[in-house]
Amino acid sequence: MLFTYSRQFILAAAVLALAGGVTESRADSCSASASTLISRSTGGNCAAALSLGDVFTLSYRITNASIIDDPLSLNDGDPVDAVVLANEVMVATLAQDTPAVGAVELPTVLEMVPVCPVGSIGGALAAGEECNPMLDQCGSGVCGCESALPGVTCTPGPANKVSIEFGQDTPFLADEEKTVATIRVKVTGVVSPPAICGEFFTRLDSVQDILMTDDPQCDSDVTANAEASADLHAPECASNADCDDGDPCTADLCTAENLCSYDYICGADICRSPGYWATHSGYEKKNSVNVGQLVIDAVGPLEVCGESIDSTSNESSPYLEGLGLSSDLEGLCVKTRGIKERSLYRQLVAAALNCGISGGDCDDILAKYVDVSFSDCSDLCAGDPPVDGPTVSECVSQLDCFNNGGQLIDGDCAYGTCAEDPTVYCGGDYGDCPLFLEEPQECEPFPGNCHSAALCNEALGVCPKNTPASSSSACREARGNSCTIDSCED
């Protein structure tokens, strides 16, 4: 009996010692931590930049990174269990300009597409179909997330927000990662420069601390919040207007890939219509610039149709007194009265001014855009038509095409291509673009066309850029006097 008692005593002592060890290991300090990650199915780099209308997914993942944080414990650094309690909430911000908390939001870039989640049965809509969160359409599922943990719901909030709510406790084993929810989103807008390649950021934040350690090794419950961000690349533009960089020396273009392109255009060919030159060749307004005179002074007299043009208008009324056919306005503002030669003279004067500010030979410049030459048309206008040269009608129509920024395509004048189908020419002889999906589409000017070029030739020292009309009254004088293309009768 003595032996039996002693054996039981020793066994009991061993049990007590073991129990004491367990009690000590469950009194460690713990640190709660939620490692959070946003995964996107596409759009994560410039090469995979999103396009308008693209639909993709954002997945929100949480890893329980909670550990025993007690340097005096043998278990220091060991991972421990944790839980997200029911009624906790995370809020997703779909688009903002930087990854930081409180960054400027971009509410027009993305929108959530609510769908019936994976596993939905018995509803009016099948899993994956778009649904209305206000209606009971998904049977066993709740409209919102594309997929989610049990009890988790996704609800579109105010613009640019999505609420992710935990309807029940969600346990996490030590070091366990779970995809809490996946939502479907659609690209609805652009991210204009200065963002590079349309870069923006999406973000996730818990409303408060969300993950709590409930491991029996921890001496108390501690909590942690959840936050994460990820970058995305949206289209930079939907039209040329989205690419405006404020630099008059760049042609701001939106490419077919919805990316902004900036072509340096100062020093390139420059053109404006006869109407522009007719109203910018005087001194009538205090803050205006006589652009026509700047060009003439820079390149010398313009030799057009047998006339030498070296002036524009006087600084006060009568604006054209004493100038005669040396004024560009007598050609630009002449009453054509159905006389084709007068229309030709008008287009030639405008072309001469355009070639002047472009800084090149007019025959060389016109050859890039049309089939007629300036010299042939000017000789024709002066009554010395070249052999096998162009007709007056051909000169008028093709010079008008150039002066307005167009070019000849298969013998017809075009100003650009259709926005939704760049294989279709438009403007000029080609007319308006056809409907695209029953909607009108714009005629996009040819890239780098002379009419869009900045009115600036720094090599000539002529750079007036935008300036108000300066010769409206002088132009009216020209229309009312007796000057035509070869005489000014009293």
Key descriptive features of the protein:
490 residues; alpha+beta; Immunoglobulin-like; 5-stranded antiparallel sheet
Protein described:
The chain is of the alpha+beta class. It has three domains: 28-233, Immunoglobulin-like, CATH 2.60.40; 240-266, no CATH class; 269-406 and 446-480, no CATH class. Helix content is 20%, strand content 23%. The chain has nine helices and 25 strands. It has helices spanning 2-25, 274-278, 291-299, 328-332, 340-358, 362-366, 374-381, 392-403, 472-480; strands at 30-31, 34-40, 55-64, 67-68, 82-84, 89-96, 110-112, 147-148, 152-156, 161-166, 170-172, 177-187, 199-206, 211-213, 223-224, 227-233, 250-254, 260-264, 302-304, 307-309, 407-409, 412-414, 416-418, 425-426, 443-445. Strands 2, 3, 7, 8 and 12 form a five-stranded antiparallel beta sheet that branches. It has a five-stranded antiparallel beta sheet with strand order 9-10-6-13-16, with no helix packed on it. A four-stranded antiparallel beta sheet has the order 11-5-14-15, with no helix packed on it. Strand 23 (416-418) and strand 24 form a beta hairpin. Helix 5 (340-358) packs antiparallel against helix 7 and helix 5 runs parallel beside helix 8. The termini are far apart.
